[in-house]
Amino acid sequence: MPLTEFSLIDRFFAAQAARRGDVAVGIGDDAAVLDVPAGQQLVVAADTLVAGVHYPADAAAEDIGHKALAVNLSDLAAMGARPAWATLALTLPDADATWLEGFARGFFALAERSGVSLVGGDTTRGPHAVITVQILGFVPQGAALLRTGARPGERIYVSGNLGDAALALQLLAGAITAPADARMWIEARLHRPEPRLALGERLRGLASAAIDVSDGLLADLGHILDGSAVGATLWVDRLPRSAAFLSTVPDLQSPAWYELPLAGGDDYELCFTAAPAHAPALAALADELGIALTPIGEIEAEPGLRCRRDDGRGYQPARRGYEHFGG
Ligand code: ADP
Ligand code: MG
C-alpha cells in the first residue's frame, strides 16, 4: 500500500505522540508551540543516525527507533537535564509500513518511559535512511553539568560498565562467539542503550563536570580535560566491565581486548568528576539507583592523560583516540 507523506505522519507519528500538558501546539501546524517553565533553562541537543554508518542497514527497525532517541536522551543526561520534547526528521528511501511500525514502536516505548512528547519533525524521501532527532529539556537556572568544571584533586567516576558495545561489534563481525544468552545481552547493550537520565539529574550539585561516553572513554574524558584545562591519572585496571564481557573476551590481557573499555564507543554511560567529599553521597546514590558508580582516576593540574595499571606501571594504549597523552 503506497503511503503519502501525510498519511505516514498521521499513522505512525501524530497518532501516537502522547501530549504533555506543556505542549500548546504539537504535530500538525507549521511549528510546535511549547510552554517553557519559569526558572528553568532550555537544554537542546540533536544527533543523526545514518543507515550503514551508525547502524547496519538491516538492523531491526524497533532497535533503530529506540537508539535514535536514546543517544539524544544520553546527551541530556550528561547535562543533568530532564527531557521534555523531541522532533524527528526522517529521510527514507521508501515508505515501508512494516519498518515504520517497528521504528515507531521502539521510539515511543522509550519516549513514554522518559516523559518525552514528540512535537514535530520532517519527512522526506532520499537515497538512504537518515534519522535526526532533536531533544529539548530543562535544568534549573545555572545547574547544568558542563565539561568545563573539573578541578585538580577531584575523582573521576564512570557509571555502569564499559566495553560491552564494542564487544558486540566483535560478535556481530564473527570475530568471536559467545553462548546465546551472553550474546543477546551484549548485543542489546549496543542496539538498545539505556540513557542514564535519573542518574544525570541526581548528579546536579554533586558532579563538577560530566559527559556521556559515546566515542570511547579516552576520547570523551579527553573532552572534559580539555574543557576544564586539567590533566588526569586513569587507573585502567579499574574500568568496570560486565560479567558477560569478562566471560566472553578470549584474552583479557591482550591490548585488542583489554582496550575495548578504554577506546570502544557507544556505551552511553556517564563519565563525571566530583570532589572527594561527595564520595559518601555518590555511594548512597549508586545504591539507591542500582547503578554502579566506579572511581577510575583523579584529576590533576598537570595537563595530559596518564594511564596506570594497578601495580603502578604506566600504560600506553595502542588505540589512542585521544591525542594529548602525558608520560
Ligand atoms: P511543512 O511543509 O510546513 O514543513 P510538514 O508537512 O513537513 O510541514 O509537516 C506537517 C506537520 O507534521 C508539522 O507539524 C511537522 O512538525 C509534523 N511532522 C512531519 N514529519 C514528522 C515526523 N517524522 N515526526 C513527527 N512530526 C512530523
Ligand atoms: Mg516539512
Provide a descriptive summary of the structure in words.
By secondary structure, the protein is α+β, with helices and mostly antiparallel strands. The chain has eleven helices and twelve strands. The chain has helices spanning 5-14, 61-78, 97-113, 164-172, 180-191, 197-202, 217-228, 243-248, 255-258, 260-263, 279-289, and strands spanning 23-25, 33-34, 40-50, 82-92, 117-125, 130-140, 155-159, 207-212, 231-235, 270-274, 293-300, 304-308. The strands form three sheets. It has a six-stranded mixed beta sheet. A hairpin with a 7-residue loop joins strand 1 and strand 2. Helix 2 (61-78) runs parallel beside helix 3 and helix 4 crosses helix 5. The termini are far apart. Mean pLDDT is 94; it is low at 322-327. Residues 9, 13, 27-30, 88, 90, 118, 120-123 line the site of adenosine-5'-diphosphate.
How would you summarize the topology of this molecule?
Blueprint: H1 5-14, E1 23-25, E2 33-34, E3 40-50, H2 61-78, E4 82-92, H3 97-113, E5 117-125, E6 130-140, E7 155-159, H4 164-172, H5 180-191, H6 197-202, E8 207-212, H7 217-228, E9 231-235, H8 243-248, H9 255-258, H10 260-263, E10 270-274, H11 279-289, E11 293-300, E12 304-308
Helix pairs in contact: 2-3, 4-5
Bound molecules: adenosine-5'-diphosphate (ADP) and magnesium ion.
The site of adenosine-5'-diphosphate (ADP) has 13 residues, from helix 1, strand 4 and strand 5.
